[in-house]
TrEMBL record:
Organism from which the protein derives: Actinokineospora fastidiosa
Residues of the ABC transporter domain: 20-268
SMART domains documented for this protein: AAA
Protein name in the entry: ABC transporter ATP-binding protein
GO CC, alphabetical: plasma membrane
UniProt xrefs under PROSITE patterns: ABC_TRANSPORTER_2 (PS50893)
Database matches in InterPro entries: AAA+_ATPase, ABC_AA/LPS_Transport, ABC_transporter-like_ATP-bd, BCA_ABC_TP_C, P-loop_NTPase
A Pfam family hit: BCA_ABC_TP_C
GO molecular function terms noted in the UniProt entry: ATP binding; ATP hydrolysis activity
Keywords of the record: ATP-binding, Nucleotide-binding, Transport
Length: 270
């Protein structure tokens, strides 16, 4: 898997500091305060889970991190570079990839082509340049295909490589969605409910692939997930939100046992 390896920590610009630092994040929609002074950090290689009942602000955090929403207040720094005000494509270019709850795959394209599209922002040779610089374009193509093959191998997607994404079984499509994000060679991966709608066996498979991806690629991840078992099994640290405010942060056990967290979940009927 060397070709898809994450950059060394020094490439983040802060060898010893956090990879991601979020402070005082505040986001309002008219009269609704979706996020109110949210702050957390993610260390290189760390898996941070963000939990909270429905409407707590988890998706809003992701949408701020990848540039879909612009917060009214606060800072977001990746390796010391501010992400605020940058377009989603620019943030992807800086190494932030996201998986989507409702799958971000093109249903007509084969799994391999979906993964190749995940690498689009890494491609230096455009179509015309490709015609003029055939040798370089060809080399680039070979490199990109090799990187995609590494992801296919890591996630054991070989049997589905030519299958149109729209025809993949649900669990495999979620894995392909993870593959699309990994093919971007991110420094930080945002996982939006990767096991939503999965049965127990599919959930266990996904957990195994996430552990494998972390071990092989060493990349940092933020996991938004309602499945508490997965959170407890995978997370290094957990941040709990309720009504847009951080109500607890710490190890999975600390956060699970925090009375404010228990109350937030009981209050929402979960
Ligand atoms: N585009 C929007 N316009 C108006 N209000 C919004 C918008 N997006 C989110 N909100 C509001 O912000 C708050 C936080 O929503 P968000 O989707 O971030 O919560 P969540 O924790 O992801 O919830 P869920 O677990 O149900 O996905 C909610 O009150 C929601 O109604």
């Amino acid at each position: 898997m060397e070709r898809v390896s994450a950059p060394a920590p020094a490439a983040s610009g802060q060898a010893s500091g956090p990879l991601l630092a979020v402070a005082d994040l505040t986001l309002r929609f008219g009269g609704v305060t979706a996020l109110d002074g949210v702050g957390f950090t993610v260390a290189p290689g760390e898996l941070l889970a963000v939990i909270g009942p429905n409407g707590a602000g988890k998706t809003s955090v992701f949408n701020c991190l990848n540039g879909v929403y612009r917060p009214q207040r606060g800072t977001i720094e990746l390796g010391g570079q501010s992400l605020i005000g940058r377009a989603p494509a620019a943030i992807a270019g800086l190494g932030v990839a996201r998986t989507f709850q409702n799958l971000g795959l093109f249903p007509q394209l084969s799994l391999v082509d979906n993964l190749m599209l995940g690498r689009h922002h890494l491609m230096r040779t455009g179509f015309l340049a490709g015609m003029a610089w055939w040798g370089r374009a060809k080399r680039e193509e070979i490199e990109h295909r090799a990187a995609v093959e590494d992801v296919i191998e890591l996630l054991e997607l070989e049997p589905y490589r030519r299958t149109p994404a729209g025809l993949l079984p649900y669990g495999v499509a979620k894995r392909a969605e993870l593959g699309r994000a990994l093919a971007m060679e991110p420094r930080l991966l945002l996982l939006d409910e990767p096991v939503a709608g999965m049965n127990v066996e599919e959930t266990e498979d996904m957990a195994r692939y996430l552990v494998q991806a972390r071990r092989e690629l060493g990349l940092a991840m933020i996991l938004v997930e309602h499945d508490m078992r997965l959170v407890m099994d995978l997370a290094d640290r957990v941040v709990a939100l309720d009504f847009g405010v951080v109500i607890a942060a710490g190890t999975p056990d600390e956060v699970r046992d925090d009375p404010r967290v228990v109350e937030a979940y009981l209050g929402c009927g979960a």
